[in-house]
Amino acid sequence: MADLTTYDGLKAAIADYLGREDLTERIPTFIRMWEQRGNRTLRLRAMEHRAHASLPKGQGQMPLPMKRVPGQWDVFLEMRDIVWTPPDGNGSVNLWYASPDEYALLLEKTGRPYCFTIEANDLFVLPTPDQAGKLQLTYYAEIPPLGDEQPDNEILLRHPDLYLYGSLVESAVFTRGSVPVDMWAQYYRQAVGDISQQETQARYPKDISMRPMRRT
User: Fold this and answer.
1) pLDDT tens digits along 86-96
2) Which of 2, 35, 98, 137 has its CA 20 to 30 A from that of 153?
3) What is the pTM for the complete model shown?
């Protein structure tokens, strides 16, 4: 039985399911295409990253993570939470998202930051801080693409069925009815549904009361 916790094992399992030797060389492409789909459609805890940065007085702009290095992959997809903390560590603020109109009004102002916006690959904290501070970012990052230099990742280790059935579905353009793609698509949808429910239960356990802590 193939080891679904490694890149080579995953490729072997996909080859077994396909039963098509003529598609063996295309299997890495099926895997990469599913990773791209996963980046667009999935937001899992295994995709969450955290980063810290210092902002000097008068600087409200910083680049977002864009490191494409096997083993250290860290490419920003979507912000989940961002906190600004002043130098004395008191009065941390959860920043809320500013629309383009709000961003335009605040861009030239300075003061205590209370919101943020994103343009291209840069993060803007608004208004521009009138004192030094620290940022803590929690964000979703791209799934590190599997390969010879990246033999596994957190998604593969936690949810190998997503990789297996997702990659098999991506093979449909080449198989053209010779394999049960509809069945694999159903298995994939079921896996996504189960994992989504699991993620919700992990984030919001039953019988635990919570109250908002956001400060502005």
Assistant:
1) 988 888 999 99
2) 137
3) 0.89
